[in-house]
Design goal:
This protein is of the alpha/beta class and 509 residues long. It has 16 helices and 18 strands. The strands form 4 sheets. The protein has an 8-stranded mixed sheet with strand order 8-12-13-7-14-15-16-17, sandwiched between helices. Strands 3-2-1-4-5-6 form a 6-stranded parallel sheet, sandwiched between helices. Helix 1 packs across helix 2. The structure holds NADP nicotinamide-adenine-dinucleotide phosphate. The site of NADP nicotinamide-adenine-dinucleotide phosphate has 18 residues, from helix 1.
């Protein structure tokens, strides 16, 4: 493909390859994956020798698939309107392959197709297999790919300095508890090496999440204060205003802990809490994230609050409660909200509480990390109780990506009256551009072979290790009073009590 490199963009060294999307007629493919590929091409970030093959079971011609994907890109692309010259170029390299996931014949035909493309389009035998499917299909697809000779032996490839590689992107969730995550990993390792597995947590592809490393380790003013000497506590909020919508079936088997805490929230926590890595190599960073997760003290059940939304008002609109949603049991005990307190028992963080909260049908969609510094003594500038309001650093992950620092300032006038003011940085207005979608960055990283922004097996296991005892406890002790917060509120009262018992408050966002 031609690379119409956008002005000011840096292109990364992507090698020729074919990308096969398993689950190509699904929601994720049309909403995220294909729009991401289109924008990568537009920004000159796709390899110049590239093909994309959609794999699913519905019969469909190449042209039908292309027309559907064009409609999807027109609707979901971050850049609009769709540019015909770029789209036409893209669709000439876009194909559809019909097969069931368990059919050997489908993989044999896929292999022939890919080899033809290697010759025709110069894709050189390199493969990315994107498993945009339900997790139950991950092992069978890997088994069949392996059997068809489509997954190369990583060690052999390295030793022989072959330039062919195969990588597999796996969607979340990775297991539904610690045991199942280990079982899934054992299954995958029969066919792949860990180095070939790219576990997606799309939060890691967000520009602001990546900026956490720069923010912490390239700014000495913050890193030198990043410890229990100066920080009072940390609050992480992952809030959504939407309800479950059409995902009732999935959510009834998952719940909020599995959907948002085990992956996104724990990833944010590990990036905030980790020690400096020795380099920016993937494993150097991930080693430190794992150490932070390993140091988390086991959770106390009484320091975890679960909630479920009832009917309420969101953005001025009446909305139904969780139990009234489509495909949801009218007596469901599944949590749509969680707040918890945890401690990290290492020298940097000893004694600093981390308060995490996440939920559906909260007043607004927002994800942020707030670092609340210790109060400055109010000896000079008294503020009633001889304490000055704390400095607060807020890193906004979404929307309105950026960061702000709250500092105390003298109000102009003859007295020493003080007022907290905000220094604010916004990505959009400063750089004058919307950051790329997380999927763009992650797909590009996989093609480049950079696994930094993908969760390694021990990150996933450590997160499950912390949270599985909670799930086990809940299975034996169903909650008594659900629903316990109206849609459109900031969660159950018990969540306020959790933090207020320590003399603190959730931030008003
Ligand atoms: N949707 C999202 O926004 C989102 C966000 C984060 C993570 N995820 C994860 O991404 C994965 C995919 O989600 P999704 O919402 O795209 O799923 P989906 O809409 O249910 O799509 C499933 C896809 O798999 C195909 N498929 C299912 N069984 C098959 C079989 N036996 N043989 C061949 N093809 C088969 C379907 O093909 P047919 O149509 O031909 O049956 C369809 O293309 C899930 O693991 C989900 O948890 C999704």
């Amino acid at each position: 493909m031609n690379n119409p490199l956008a002005e000011g963009q840096q292109s990364r060294l992507t090698e020729p390859c074919s990308l096969v999307i398993f689950g190509a007629t699904g929601d994720l493919t049309s909403r995220k994956i294909v729009p991401a590929l289109y924008n990568l091409l537009k920004d000159g970030q796709l390899p110049s020798l590239f093909t994309c093959i959609g794999f699913a079971r519905r019969p469909k011609t190449h042209n039908e698939f292309r027309a559907e994907m064009k409609e999807a890109v027109s609707k979901y692309s971050r850049t609009k309107p769709i540019e015909d010259s770029i789209w036409n170029h893209f669709q000439d390299h876009l194909f559809y392959h019909q097969s069931e996931f368990h059919e050997d014949e489908g993989y044999a035909k896929l292999k022939i197709l890919l080899e033809q493309f290697d010759t025709k389009y110069g894709t050189k035998g390199n493969r990315v297999f994107y498993l945009a499917t339900q997790p139950v299909s991950f092992p069978v697809i890997c088994e069949k790919l392996h059997k068809a000779g489509l997954i190369y032996d990583q060690k052999k490839t390295k030793d022989q300095k072959s330039d062919k590689w195969s990588r597999v992107i796996i969607e979340k969730p990775f297991g539904h508890d610690l045991t199942s995550a280990h079982q899934l990993q054992d299954e995958l390792l029969k066919f792949l090496s860990e180095k070939q597995i790219y576990r997606i947590d799309h939060y890691l592809g967000k520009e602001t999440v990546q900026n956490l490393l720069v923010f912490r380790f390239a700014n000495s003013i913050f890193e030198s204060l990043w410890n229990n000497q100066h920080i009072d506590h940390v609050q992480i909020t992952v809030a959504e205003d939407i309800g479950i919508g059409t995902r009732g079936k999935f959510f009834e088997n998952a719940g909020l802990l599995r959907d948002m805490i085990q992956n996104h929230t724990m990833q944010l926590l590990s990036l905030v809490a980790m020690e400096p890595p020795v380099s920016l190599e993937a494993d150097a960073i991930r080693d430190q994230k794992v150490k932070a997760l390993e140091a988390i003290r086991p959770l106390k059940v009484e320091e975890v609050v679960r909630g479920q939304y009832g009917p309420g008002l969101v953005n001025g609109q009446d909305v139904i409660g969780y139990r009234q949603e489509q495909d949801v049991n009218s007596q469901s005990n599944i949590e749509t909200y969680l707040a918890l307190k945890l401690f990290i028992d290492n020298p940097r963080w000893f004694g600093v509480p981390f308060y995490l909260r996440a939920g559906k049908r909260l007043p607004k969609k927002t994800t942020e990390i707030a670092v609340i510094f210790k109060d400055a003594p109010g000896i000079l500038f008294q503020n009633g109780n001889r304490k000055n309001p704390p400095n607060i650093l807020v890193i906004r992950i979404q929307p309105d990506e950026g960061s702000s620092l709250k500092i105390n300032c003298k109000v102009p006038g003859p007295t020493n009256t003080m007022q907290p003011v905000k220094m604010d940085f916004r990505y959009g207005s400063y750089f004058g551009t919307t950051p790329p979608e997380a999927y763009e960055r992650l797909i590009c990283d996989c093609i480049v072979g950079d696994s930094t922004l993908f969760a390694r097996e021990d990150e996933v296991f450590n997160s499950w290790k912390l949270l599985t005892p909670l799930l086990d406890n809940w299975a034996k002790n169903p909650p008594k009073e659900l629903p316990n917060y109206p849609a459109g509120s900031w969660g159950p009262k018990a969540a306020d009590q959790l933090i207020e018992a320590d003399g603190r408050k959730w931030r008003l966002i």
